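We include the entry.

. . .
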Amino acid sequence: MSNDPQQDHTALLSEALSFHQKGELGQTLRLYRRILEQQPDDLDALMMSATAEIQEKNYREALILLDRIIANIRTASDAYNNRSVTLK
């Protein structure tokens, strides 16, 4: 890791996305949680973490993350859509 927090954040997000694309959801979720510990309102990490939770059938956790997104942004169509899919 570097001394630049933004660069570290970007590297972690990139690594998490790589694991997510490979379907390695356990590692994916660990990295997203680490990102969210550092930047709790990171919308990309919140959305991708919610998506991974849905894929793992952790619907309660997914809804918590999606509600955090909805609370933090005015236009949350993706979050609303994912939330509705999760509730089906």
User: Anything to note?
Assistant: The radius of gyration is 13 Å. The chain has five helices and no strands. Helices lie at 5-21, 25-38, 43-55, 59-72, 77-87. The chain has a mean pLDDT of 88.
